[in-house]
Amino acid sequence: MTVTHSILLKAAAELMQSGATPTVDAIIASNPQGSTQSWAGVFRKLLAQRTTLQTGTIDRAAFSIFAKGNSKLPFYAFSSMAILDCAGYGECGKWCYSKSAWRNPNAAGRQISNSMLLRHEAGRNLIAGQLLKLPKDVVFRLYVDGDFDSIETLRYWMELLKQRPDVQAYGYSKSWAEFLALELQDYAWPSNYLLNLSSGSRHPDSMRDLMAKLPITRGEFLAVPVERHHIKSGAYKSRRADGFKDYAAAVRKNASTKVFVCSGQCGDCLPAGRHACGDAKFRNVPIAIGVH
Ligand code: SF4
Q1: What does the pLDDT read at residue 292?
Q2: Distance 149 CA to ligand 1 centre (A)
Q3: Model confidence, pTM
Q4: CB of 13 within 8 A of CB of 22?
Q5: CB of 108 within 8 A of CB of 8?
């Protein structure tokens, strides 16, 4: 059975809710002996996890909860199911980078698994236990794929971060209605989370202005159109890539404001291992990347 994006979203939604799972069952039935690397194998594991979550007997997640970074993103990271968990997605649904991860059944499986965990108390306890065990002073990217799906999830993460004030958390979000709803409750935000406001939200500029005033907001992260050859050559992927200077000049020229150009490799972003998106010194500095 070919697992297209729409089938994948349908199956993921079934697992994230209670009730029948006809799409999941069909994927598994199409390849009953499928290995753990196959779609059938991944959905077998997720279906079993659903039972342990519903009975509260889960003792470990079907997929590792946090990803430990690579050279592009050398930090601990959390993802959940893109699109389904993106409360504020709009235009970005057309270019969503997370969809490329869905080519790999295990990468999609990790996103779905974390979305399932977040919807059950036993699952949230499992995530909390792992966050509390992270090494001291680590950088934590809260959501690579996915976003805060609800006020409850947003509050859950913010409270969890307060328990580990040494963890330097940052992220990007379009769940602005959820952030502003919490702000309206006079919520005390954690001091160790910085938020980047990314392009493609469904929300109006008036909400962006309110978001910019939150104490946790670092600033804007903009996607700027550039000529395709800058993207095709891979110049946007690293400041050391051939053509990066020309690419950066094109981003600066096409951006509507003065920007810091993202170099694509977070571990190589600033001297001494610092990274602009999670750096309080970059408050109110718009960061921009070419649309790719
Ligand atoms: S600006 Fe720096 S930290 Fe932000 S995404 Fe680009 S490389 Fe990563």
Answers
A1: 76
A2: 24
A3: 0.92
A4: no
A5: yes
Place of tokens 């890539």: 241
- Does any ligand 1 atom lie closer than 6 A to the CB of residue 113? no
Q: How far is the CA of 192 from the centre of ligand 1 (A)?
A: 18
Question: CA 3 to CA 40: how far, in whole Å?
Answer: 10
Buried b (16+ CB within 10 A) or exposed e, 77-93: bbbbbbbbbbbbbeebe
| Beta carbons of 138 and 69 less than 8 angstroms apart | no
Tell how strand 168-173 and strand 193-198 pair up.
parallel
Q: Is the CB of 264 under 6 A from ligand 1?
A: yes
Chain centroid to CA 157: 13
Torsion angle of the four alpha carbons 232, 236, 239, 241, in this order, in degrees rounded to the nearest 10: -10
What per-residue confidence (pLDDT) applies to 72? 73
Report the nearest-CA residue for atom 6 of ligand 1. Answer: 262
For the chain, which ranges sit under pLDDT 70? 71
Asked whether the beta carbons of 222 and 288 are under 8 A apart, the reply is yes
Parse the chain into domains and list their residue ranges: 64-215
Computed on alpha carbons and rounded to an integer, the radius of gyration of the chain in Å comes to 19
Distance CA 32, CA 26 (A): 10
Determine if ligand 1 sits within 6 Å of the CB of residue 16: no
Residue 255: both structure tokens together: 């951006």
Cβ(276) to ligand 1 under 6 A? yes
Asked if residue 289 lies in contact with residue 260, where contact means CB atoms within 8 angstroms, the answer is no
Instruction: Report which DSSP code applies to 201.
Output: B
Testing ligand 1's pocket by substitution, the residue of 194, 238, 287, 289 carrying the most ligand atoms inside 8 A of its CB is 287
Ligand 1 close to Cβ of residue 82 (< 6 A): no
**Ligand 1 within 6 A of 141 CB?**
no
**12 CB less than 6 Å from ligand 1?**
no
DSSP letter, residue 65: S
